[in-house]
Design a protein that fits this description.
This protein is an alpha+beta fold. Helix content is 22%, strand content 34%. It is globular and about 95 Å long. The protein has 5 domains: 62 residues, no CATH class; 77 residues, no CATH class; 92 residues, no CATH class; 76 residues; 87 residues.
Length: 473
């Protein structure tokens, strides 16, 4: 129990850091000082003028102390925020990553000699993508260009999904992207920048892996990355060859990433990955650096809840956003465990979680549009006709359980063998239950939709809010 008045009302700094009296201790200390001056019978209750004036002084002292603590702590990257953190990390030779835009490579087709100025194309989701300011179609009528999303952030697009001309121009006939989009990223958060600053201090480290890890993290535009090592004499479970390293990277340019790896990779250790870049070192020697570009495993959910007193549509949005944020926060190669997904959707740390209970949660990695009949629309049968797979969806696999997002599929409907079509994609499949389901959005899931979602070492789970269907009873 402190003795009042306190020896000081100011912050104090010692080996443990900085501390300051609480507002209540400041108030009691000032009251004790006033009584020592004016007598112990002075009235200092909260409804008295003197008591209120002392409270104002105590609050002013407390606020100033908090500012002093904030300034003291902001000298460390662990506590600083915003602009102060951006300034501090410069001492580690890094800078906050600015927002980036998704890009994709595609073919412009039209009449030879046509000049396209400020061309814009649209993807299947309505997102706009800019062509280079000026594109001249050469002899042959085709030119490959890079299109850039107009909005920053992670905007996905699979091959062929950017194909609509938004501002038609004479002589310009078609556009179609020939590569999946390299997704952009929002402005780097304080938390992400702190993590990157922490690993950046390993740049001069004696450990090779730590140095490579830090160097990649300092490449402009890199948002997520991981380094795997196979030190054994045989290929490991991830398919990484013996005595090699595999780096998985999201964002950044291929040239900068490869240069960062080459500068710190020891001689004789091979790199593994599907992206290969030829790098020339400072003395002119060339080497091939391989790494993996991070890929995304789309996760789809159907959350069915029973509403209770106090439930609102806004809470429904909160449920969807919480489940989405949990999946999107998983690290590279981290599985999406069913129990954790259920906990995230339950809002267990929020009072809003008391306004409903989850009746069921289905999670899968396959989304598509399909119907079930005997091959003729409206006639019950055991044929699933898949007309289209969702962008980024995993393939259909026999044994998966099917769920409808609109009318619904009979409980316990299991996917059987494929009759025709693209393997694992659009086509005709057998199912075990005879029924008639009109064409609608469906998902397919392993383990009746209550199994953990495994993620490959070079993938990360991704679940935008649009991938989640909320059913309210």
């Amino acid at each position: 129990m402190p003795t009042y008045p306190l020896a000081t009302l100011a912050p104090t700094v010692n080996s443990a850091g900085i501390s300051a009296p609480s507002y209540n201790d400041i108030l009691l200390s000032l009251q004790a000082s006033y009584k020592a001056i004016y007598g112990s019978d002075i009235v200092l209750t909260s409804d008295s003028q003197d008591g209120q004036w002392i409270a104002v002084q105590a609050k002013a002292i407390y606020d100033n102390n908090q500012i002093a603590i904030l300034i003291f702590n902001s000298m460390s990257p662990s506590y600083s925020q915003g602009a102060q953190l951006s300034s501090l990390v410069k001492l580690s030779a890094i800078a906050r990553n600015v927002p980036t835009n998704s890009t994709a490579v595609g073919n412009v087709i039209g009449q030879s000699g046509t000049i396209i100025r400020d061309g814009v194309v649209r993807d299947v989701n309505g997102n706009m993508w800019n062509l280079p300011p000026v594109v001249t179609i050469p002899i042959g009528g085709l030119i490959a260009v890079t299109v850039t999303a107009q909005v920053s952030g992670a905007i996905p697009a699979q091959i062929g999904e950017i194909s609509q001309i938004a501002n038609p121009q004479y002589g310009w006939q078609t556009f179609s992207n020939t590569s999946a989009a390299t997704q952009g990223a929002p402005v780097e958060s304080d938390a992400a920048l702190r993590r990157r600053q922490a690993v950046s201090t390993a740049l001069p480290a004696l450990g090779i892996l730590a140095a490579i890890y830090s160097a990649i993290g300092n490449v402009t535009g890199v948002t997520r990355w991981f380094v795997y090592e196979n030190a054994t004499g045989t290929t490991d479970a991830n398919g990484i060859p013996a005595h090699s390293i595999c780096i998985v990277v999201e964002g950044g340019t291929t040239a900068a990433i490869a240069a960062a790896i080459q500068a710190r990779k020891p001689p004789g250790i091979q790199t593994y990955g599907t992206t290969s870049v030829t790098v020339k070192d400072s003395v002119g020697l060339t080497s091939i650096i391989n790494y993996d570009v991070l890929s995304y495993l789309q996760v789809y959910m159907i959350i069915t809840i029973q509403s209770l007193t106090g439930y609102t549509a806004a809470i429904g949005t909160e449920i969807v956003n919480a489940a989405s944020a949990f999946v999107n926060g998983l690290t590279i190669g981290e599985a999406a465990y069913y129990s954790q997904l259920n906990a995230a959707a339950s809002l267990i740390s929020s009072p809003d979680g008391q306004t409903y209970f989850i009746q069921s949660l289905i999670v899968g990695t396959v989304s598509f549009t399909g119907r079930i009949d005997n091959g003729t629309i409206g006639i019950a049968g055991t044929l699933l006709t898949v007309s289209a797979m969702a962008a980024g969806s995993a393939p259909l696999v026999a044994g998966q359980t099917l769920f409808g997002l609109v009318v619904g599929v009979a409980a316990g409907t299991i996917l059987g063998s494929q009759v025709s079509g693209t393997p694992g994609g659009a086509g005709v499949y057998n199912v075990n239950n005879s029924q008639s389901v009109a064409s609608e959005a469906m998902i397919a899931a392993a383990g009746a939709g209550v199994a953990n979602v495994a993620v490959a070492f070079n993938q990360t789970a991704q679940c935008p809010a649009a991938n989640i269907t909320l059913v309210v009873h």
